[in-house]
Write a structure and sequence with these properties.
Layout (H helix, E strand, L loop, with lengths): L1 E6 L4 H4 L10 E3 L23 H7 L5 E4 L8 H13 L4 E5 L11 H13 L2 E4 L2 H11 L4 E2 L8 H5 L8 E6 L9 H13 L4 E8 L12 H12 L4 E5 L4 H9 L3 E3 L9 H9 L2 E5 L4 H4 L3 E3 L1 E2 L3 E2 L1 H14 L7 H23 L1
Parallel strand pairs: 1-2, 1-3, 3-4, 4-5, 5-6, 7-8, 7-10, 8-9, 10-11, 11-12
Antiparallel strand pairs: 13-14
Helix pairs in contact: 2-3, 3-4, 7-8, 7-12
Keywords: Glycosyltransferase, Transferase
Pfam family, one: Glyco_transf_4
GO molecular function: glycosyltransferase activity
Length: 352
């Protein structure tokens, strides 16, 4: 049995990197409850395992340390201290590079500084696409094992037929306006494009805190623009609190095309959920989204801005062809088993 201090353990990606029936003899420590989190909470951030003092206190409880997410607020010095603690106790470090550009940070500098510590120090590296692996080699002269993102939606929903309905619905979910979201220009192009397609509609969802003057995400200018378009009948606007999984999967299943409004980033769990549910995706050409799963692409990046023509054409292509790129439950199960086995083998290799 291999005991893994996984940062985190409770994230859906990490949970689905494990075999569904403990067949891989890998045990991931449960996430320590962060200070201030109630006893009933499943919140894992900020991760207590990032503290070198936690490593010193719990080194007898794990064999391998595997970092995924949650180090956004850690300075290079703090990460260096963490690595020193792992070295002190002879614990190998595995790092899965999900994000080469942090989607929550407008300035790429802090995340790159963190990667400059983590990538050279890791005993093994994993990432999700060949493009990300090539970038890691180019930047740091390190080789990363490429493993696909496992399923996000559970098997019963993957096998469930999509709801039958008429028309063609394009959706953009603005969430709470992550730093990499270019909502206003993307929605403007979509509203104009969809208006010219018979039976098509545009649905825009956004979290309530964007309309709350007391919230950090408050953006009255964007809300005014969205309400203006909604009043003109160009889109349906839904302002709501965070959706739980059941409501989120129902929302995605009700779309024919989900548009990812990103101007930077690397990979996407949202795209994987759409693949599980059979909802087509239009993804920007920044990052490596198109290498994850089949999708339509359009031009959007911080360097070049939004290519309005390519976004319009992606929507029209989806409208013409009605693509349904959907995972099968059997393929996802086999994929999960492969991912689990490679993780197990990496841990065993590191432990000799």
């Amino acid at each position: 049995m291999v005991r893994v201090a996984s940062v985190p353990a409770g994230h859906i990606y990490v949970r689905h990197c494990a075999a569904p029936i403990d067949e891989d003899a890998v045990v991931r420590l449960p996430d320590p409850r962060p200070n201030g989190a109630p006893s009933t909470s499943q919140r894992w951030w900020p991760p207590a395992m990032l503290d070198p003092a936690w490593v010193d206190a719990h080194e007898a409880e794990f064999d391998v340390y595997h970092l995924h997410f949650g180090f956004d607020a850690q300075s290079p010095a703090a990460l260096t201290a963490l690595i020193a603690a792992l070295r002190r106790h002879g614990k190998p470090l595995v790092y899965t590079a999900h994000d080469l550009r942090n989607p929550h940070q407008a300035d790429p500098g802090p995340h790159l500084a963190a990667l400059d510590v983590l990538v050279p120090a890791a005993d093994r590296l994993i990432t999700l696409t060949p493009g990300a692996a090539a970038e890691i080699t180019s930047r740091w002269n390190r080789r990363a094992t490429v493993l696909p993102h496992p399923h996000v939606v559970e098997r019963p929903l993957i096998t469930r037929p999509r709801p039958a309905r008429k028309g063609f619905r394009v959706g953009v979910h603005a969430k709470s306006l992550r730093a990499n979201m270019a909502i206003s220009p993307v929605v403007g192009v979509l509203a104009e494009t969809v208006s010219g397609l018979v039976g098509a509609e545009l649905a825009v969802n956004i979290h309530r805190e964007v309309a709350d003057p007391a919230a950090h995400a408050y953006d009255p200018g964007l809300m005014a623009r969205l309400h203006e378009l909604a009043d003109r009948g160009a889109l349906t606007l839904r302002v709501h609190d965070y959706l739980d999984d059941d409501r989120l999967w129902a929302y995605l299943s009700g779309l024919d095309l989900s548009v990812l409004p990103y101007s930077f980033g690397t990979h996407s769990g949202w795209l994987e959920a759409c693949h599980d549910l059979g909802t087509a995706v239009a993804a920007p050409d920044c990052g490596y989204y198109a290498q994850q799963r089949p999708c339509l692409t359009y031009g959007n990046s911080q360097a070049c801005g939004l290519d309005t023509a390519s976004l319009s054409e992606a929507v029209r292509e989806a409208y013409r062809t009605r693509p349904v790129w959907r995972a099968s439950a059997e393929d996802r199960a086999a994929e999960r088993s492969r991912v689990s086995a490679v993780h197990r083998d990496i841990y065993h290799e590191l432990l000799g």
